[in-house]
Amino acid sequence: MKNVGMVLFIFLLLEAMCSEGCWKEEREALWDLNSHFGFPLSLKWYGTDCCQWEGVECNSSTRRVAKLNLYEDTWKNVNRYLNYTDFIVFKDLKSLNLSHNGIIGCAGNNEGYSPLYKNFMS
């Protein structure tokens, strides 16, 4: 009986955290990325469910961001630096497209994130 109660508690906790369709901290991180990069794509980001936003795909069971397509041809002539720590909040992120965003290198201490380099710079 204790196990049923624990499972129910975890389910309710997850439900509360995802009640707006996606995880609050991931939605906020997307807005932070937008403020750093100024993605025109974010003009199409409305509502609280970031899983429904253009360029954002979520894991269907966890409702966490799994794929970000932030390709932006507008910024190809602007030089920017990427900080991998901006993406730590995305626990289920498997695919990230930042091509044509003018990223020329990394800022800050990105030690330990080098395996992610090929995904972030694709």
TrEMBL record:
<dbReference type="InterPro" id="IPR046956">
    <property type="entry name" value="RLP23-like"/>
</dbReference>
<keyword id="KW-0472">Membrane</keyword>
<feature type="signal peptide">
    <location>
        <begin position="1"/>
        <end position="21"/>
    </location>
</feature>
<feature type="domain" description="Leucine-rich repeat-containing N-terminal plant-type">
    <location>
        <begin position="25"/>
        <end position="59"/>
    </location>
</feature>
<dbReference type="Pfam" id="PF08263">
    <property type="entry name" value="LRRNT_2"/>
</dbReference>
<keyword id="KW-0812">Transmembrane</keyword>
<keyword id="KW-0677">Repeat</keyword>
<keyword id="KW-0732">Signal</keyword>
<dbReference type="InterPro" id="IPR032675">
    <property type="entry name" value="LRR_dom_sf"/>
</dbReference>
<keyword id="KW-0433">Leucine-rich repeat</keyword>
<dbReference type="GO" id="GO:0016020">
    <property type="term" value="C:membrane"/>
</dbReference>
<protein>
    <recommendedName>
        <fullName>Leucine-rich repeat-containing N-terminal plant-type domain-containing protein</fullName>
    </recommendedName>
</protein>
<keyword id="KW-1133">Transmembrane helix</keyword>
<dbReference type="InterPro" id="IPR013210">
    <property type="entry name" value="LRR_N_plant-typ"/>
</dbReference>
<keyword id="KW-0675">Receptor</keyword>
<keyword id="KW-0325">Glycoprotein</keyword>
